[in-house]
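User: Fold this; tokens only.

Assistant: Input:
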Amino acid sequence: MKIRCLKSGLLIAVLVFAGSGCSSYKLQTAQIDGAPAKNPIKITENREAYSFVANTYLSVNEKRTLSANIDGHSDVNAYGVYQLNPVQGEKYYTEPANVNNFPFKGNNFFWNIPSVQGGFDIDLALSRHFSINGGLSLSAVNDRNLYGKRAGIAFFTQGQNSAARFDIGLKYQDFFYD
């Protein structure tokens, strides 16, 4: 009885997976509002235990939009548009045959960056070779505030003519997309 149930279950699973098809999705257009990552540069020099360093920054971006073409866009019609026709009385669309025959040549990825971005970072050395650090940033794109937060730890060492620092951390940054 157990073997018969196992065989039936296996048969049903094979039929379900064999009957289902794989589908792929293609990015038509993406628009993102967000600030580029601003990772602070830390200089490791004469750090003593419990020393504290605070940095502020303000950056101005002259170019407000970055754009690119992402591979995989569907073919388009002669006007450069991916054409779909609505089905009357329904809430879905169908692709007409022999219309979308041309490769897409424009940009389909747009990243709006803030004109001004600011923030501050702190670094507290707990010993001569270990510190904790964090920071906050603020910017705005299209009247929406974008907050960034960062926290981490660092291991560092220095010699007479050289120094090394290894940072590990987490970063959160607000983004909006359409």
